[in-house]
Amino acid sequence: MEAVNYKTLTTSRGFTYSYFLGKPSEETIAELDPADPPLPALLFLHGFPTSSRLWRHQVEFFVHRGFVVIVPDLLGFGETSKPTEVECYRSSLVCKDVVEILDAEVLQDVIAIGHDLGSKIVSRLANFYPDRFKAYGFLAAPYYAPRPKSNIEFTSKLTKKMCGYELCGHTVFYSEDGSDKLIENQLDSFFSVLFPSDPKVRVTHVAPIGALRSWLEHGRKAEMGPWIPPKDMEYWRTVISRDGIAGALCWHKGLVSGVNADDDKPIPLELYHVAKPVLFAAATHDYISPAILGIATTNYHCKTSTIRQFNEGHWLMLSAPAELNVALLSWVMDCI
C-alpha cells in the first residue's frame, strides 16, 4: 500500500479522511474479458486499533484481479482526523463521511467489507444507505443489528451467563477516564495482548471486566502473532505515540455512554434485516466475538447469507490471508 496511492478528503462536517485508492494496472484491465459483467468496487473498513494498512493482503490480491479498492483510515485512526468528542463518532455520521468519500470517487456499485469496529459501520451502511451497496461482508465480527435500548451492564451480564466470562470488559475499560494515558504508557504491553500468538490470551486478559487494566498496570507482555507485519505494527505504534489514542477510544465510549443506542433509534424496524447478500467469515478461535453467536446473528438478520468458518483468531485477514482471499473472491463473484 504505497503512499502515492493515498488521497485525502475533507468531509462536509469538516474532518479530513485519508484513504487508499487502488486501481488495476492497464495490463490487468487488458486481461479481463470485456464480455464479463463489470467488477464492483470493494470498500474495506478496519477496526480498533489499526488503520487501512490492516487490509494490505486483500488490497494486493483484489487489485491484481481487476478490482478497484477503497480503504479509508476511519475517524480517530491513521492519518484521518482524531476528534475527542464522542458525538463525532456516531455511526450515522461516520457512514455519511464514508459515503462522501465514495461520492468523491464516483463509486456507485460497491461491496462493503468490515472487521471489528468496521463491521459496525458496514452494518449501519446497510441500514442507512441500503441502495448504495451491492452486498456486505463481515469478518470475525458479524452484522450488528440496531440496538436502540442497548445497555453495557446488561450485555456484560448476559455474555457472562452465555460464555462464562464477559465479552466486553475491554470496551468498559476503554471508556474509563485515564485509559488513554495508561495505553500510551504501555504500548508494547497493549499491542502484545491485542495481537497474541495464542488467541486464548484474550479470554483471560482482555474480555473480562478489569482484566485489561490489570494487564497494562503490571506491564505484562504476551508473545505476539508471527503474522503481524512489522512495518504496520511500527506504524500503528508511531501513530498512537504521535497523536494519542483518545480519539479512537471514543468509538467504545459511544457504546458505553448510550450515544450509539440513541443513534440507532431513527432506523425503521423493516431495515433491521438485511435483504442483500451477506458474507460472514467466522473466526472459530475469536473468543471475544464467538463464531457460534455470529453465525446465529447472521442467519437471523440476513436473508441471503453465506457463512465461511476459519480456524483462526480475530485477525484472520493477517493470519490466513490466502484462505480468506479465496473465500472473499468466490463470494464476491457470486454477488455479481
Automatic annotation (TrEMBL):
Q: Which domain of life is it from?
A: Eukaryota
Pfam families attached to this UniProt entry:
Abhydrolase_1 (PF00561)
Q: Which UniProt keywords apply?
A: Hydrolase
Q: Does the keyword Transmembrane helix apply?
A: no
Q: Where is the AB hydrolase-1 domain?
A: 40-141
Q: Which InterPro entries match?
A: AB_hydrolase_1 (IPR000073), AB_hydrolase_fold (IPR029058), Epox_hydrolase-like (IPR000639)
Q: Which GO terms describe its molecular function?
A: hydrolase activity
Task: Give the similarity note.
Answer: Belongs to the AB hydrolase superfamily. Epoxide hydrolase family.
UniProt name for this protein: Alpha/Beta hydrolase protein
Which species is this UniProt entry from?
A: Gymnopilus junonius (Spectacular rustgill mushroom)
